[in-house]
Amino acid sequence: MALHAANFYGNISPELQMEDVDTMQKTRSPNTYDIQTAVLSNEEVAEAHYLLRCECPQIAQHARPGQFVHVMSSTGTGLLLRRPFTIYTVEGTQITMLYQIIGEGTKRLSEMPIGASLQVLGPLGNPFDIASTSEPAILIGGGAGIASLMLLAVALCERGIPTLGLVGAQHRARLLSVTDLEALGIAVHIATDDGSIGHHGFVTDILRDILGKTDWKLPRIYACGPHGMLAAVAQIAADFEVPTQVAMENRMGCAMGVCLGCVCPVRIDANQIEYQRVCTEGPVFNANDIVWEF
Fold first, then answer.
1. What CATH topology corresponds to 137-289?
2. What CATH architecture applies to the domain 4-124?
3. Full-model pTM
4. What is the pLDDT of residues 63-81, one digit of tens each?
């Protein structure tokens, strides 16, 4: 899961927990749909990480790399509020969501059986911008952040853009998506905090080494993961003058731009910083626009 719901929205006022439905509707894109569907599969793919599949034809048709959905269960899990999950893959009329158990909500979601009812709103947020891209791509995923990059990997490979994957995890048992990336023909470099597989250290160590040695001309970086990892990626990219887009992982409340619970500081110019909503102005931003030291 690349996006996190606020813990039972505890940091949001009761008034905003009962957002006006008409206001929410006005914030939607014409290509955003609220679909009643059911769990087709919900399998553990790594330690504490699950892949959920459901039928969402309209969302599948309009989903773009980096966008997400807002999900609510209506079958007795006790989850009354929606939670945001990145769209991991699109396969025909079906979408998948790769998520990590990080609290009571995602724990209950992991226990949902096949056939359990879901309400899925999406696609939401601004996607990665690759419309005019032909340069080689470096994808960097930290933990469940790799979920935001799979649709992007597919799109880049379909366009014949040389792509390299850098995947980081705490340890071998939590390593995600390597097989999926390799199935697309993408070479993958792995880093783990404990050295149980791949480089012993951070995925950003590999990035700096590659940029220092590569003969690629003007690569572009696309990244998603913990804040500290993204800040390090942004600094390395600035050092090597590599254009970089990041998908932010801020906690979300409404995910529709109403509650202002997911804002991050963005540099507008040399003298101005404003807080922008990750759910609507993001989740994808240019890395050099984010004020990382806040």
1. Rossmann fold (3.40.50)
2. Beta Barrel (2.40)
3. 0.89
4. 999 999 999 886 655 566 7
